[in-house]
Amino acid sequence: MKRWERYSIESLIEDREDPRGRLFLSPKGQQQLGHIKLLHTGVDTVRQLYAGKPCIHLFDRIIETYREGRGATIDLFGTTWIVGAGNTNSGFRYRLQNNELGVIVLFYARHTKAEDVGTHLKIELSPHFIHERSTADIQTYLDSIAKELMAYVEPMGCAVHLALDIQGWKPPKDFMDRFVTRSKKVTKIDGIYDFSFNHGTIATTYGNAETFMFGTASALQCCIYNKTKEAHARDKIHFWESIWNTASSDDPTVSDYDPDRDVWRIEMRFHQSVLREFAQGVPCNVDTGECLDMEHGFKRFIDTVPHLTGLWRTAMVKYRLDHSRNLIDSAWQLLQEDARFYDHEPHFLYKRARKAPGLGNEKNVALVVGNLISLYARQGFTTQQAMNGLTRCGAWDDIANYYRRRGIDADQLRLLISQRLVERRLLGKAA
């Protein structure tokens, strides 16, 4: 797939590309994507599997509590849990749940005897549990529960859901026509009011939103949906707004989040079997191409953390929105390249400050215009396309003032641009 060239005002002054720039150029035209705001990137769900030999006396105590009936509770690991039955699809007989904490513990594998070593434990973590803790603390907590419940403990794999929340973009009307996937499992739901993800399935009631889901829970799954409406329906809007309000690309005192506009989410869900395959030598380091350690196999959540950005980019290629044949959609390219998933303290967000040329910086404005015209000539732009591009490059006010102060009106500027395009094609660096 061909990709768009990316520039910023700063890089145009220096006549170079900017891998983080918001001005996208290709033979298909120009796109200025400064209006797209990346409000949040993070791990939305963790599911950690452990094998071991159950501590029978503790299992028996939990099962006794379960037999007391619905709503029975037990105090373990410094927390009070409701004891219930495991979902049939989960593969486990029993469940410890504390929604206030944001943790579900599934234990006692249905197809393995309690006295045998087996994959008897899965721990699921919710978004608010993850956001309030560092990855090291999360892994320590997971391991501590496993060591309480079992002997001979061994991590057996981890599933993660990566989430990107954005404003300024939503699936276009022709989304399904331009979306590329090899998955045979495609779900499009119009008018969704409330839905929740449980054990890889989706339950819905209808209302006023929309969601797209591609793939199956046992592989790599992509889900795109209106996060604002989903958060309202599940009474989680205050939690998510507290996170979105920290998003700032320029002024750290001003949030990029607009509460009057909907937030859309792109979520990539990696089943533990998929991560196991990635760990068998697929280069995932986005900067160096480093291959993963063949031994660890992403057995623990913390093993995946240094590679989450690479995994995200890989998923955004497997599930891809195209602009046209052999050219990726510019917004999809932005979301693929700019989303970064790091080991960080809660609420960290990658920030990039911009400084556009203004009054008193005429030389930089001239460089921006000159270098843009060279790029337009190389991409085969017409005069009208070049004029439209200049007005939408993010520095038009400065450009217009620059030429106005030199006595050049709109018609004269159009003629000047036309001449410069011809010169670049016949004599200059676009030829």
Furnish the topology, listing elements before pairings.
Elements: E1 5-7, H1 9-13, E2 23-26, E3 29-32, E4 37-54, H2 56-66, E5 73-76, E6 79-85, E7 92-98, E8 103-109, E9 118-125, H3 127-131, H4 135-149, E10 150-167, H5 175-178, E11 179-180, E12 186-198, E13 201-214, E14 220-226, H6 227-233, H7 237-244, E15 264-270, H8 272-278, H9 301-304, H10 308-318, E16 320-324, E17 327-328, H11 330-338, H12 362-379, H13 383-391, H14 396-404, H15 410-426
How would you characterize the overall build of this protein?
The structure is a single chain. The protein has 431 residues and is of the alpha+beta class. Helix content is 32%, strand content 30%. It is built from 15 helices and 17 strands. The protein has helices at 9-13, 56-66, 127-131, 135-149, 175-178, 227-233, 237-244, 272-278, 301-304, 308-318, 330-338, 362-379, 383-391, 396-404, 410-426, and strands at 5-7, 23-26, 29-32, 37-54, 73-76, 79-85, 92-98, 103-109, 118-125, 150-167, 179-180, 186-198, 201-214, 220-226, 264-270, 320-324, 327-328. The strands form 3 sheets. The protein has an 11-stranded antiparallel sheet with strand order 5-6-7-8-9-4-10-15-14-13-12, sandwiched between helices. A 3-stranded antiparallel sheet has the order 1-2-3. Strands 11-16-17 form a 3-stranded antiparallel sheet. Helix 12 (362-379) packs across helix 15 (410-426) and helix 13 (383-391) crosses helix 15. The longest helix has 18 residues, at 362-379. The radius of gyration is 26 Å and the shape is elongated. The model is unreliable at 192-209 and 343-359 (pLDDT under 50).
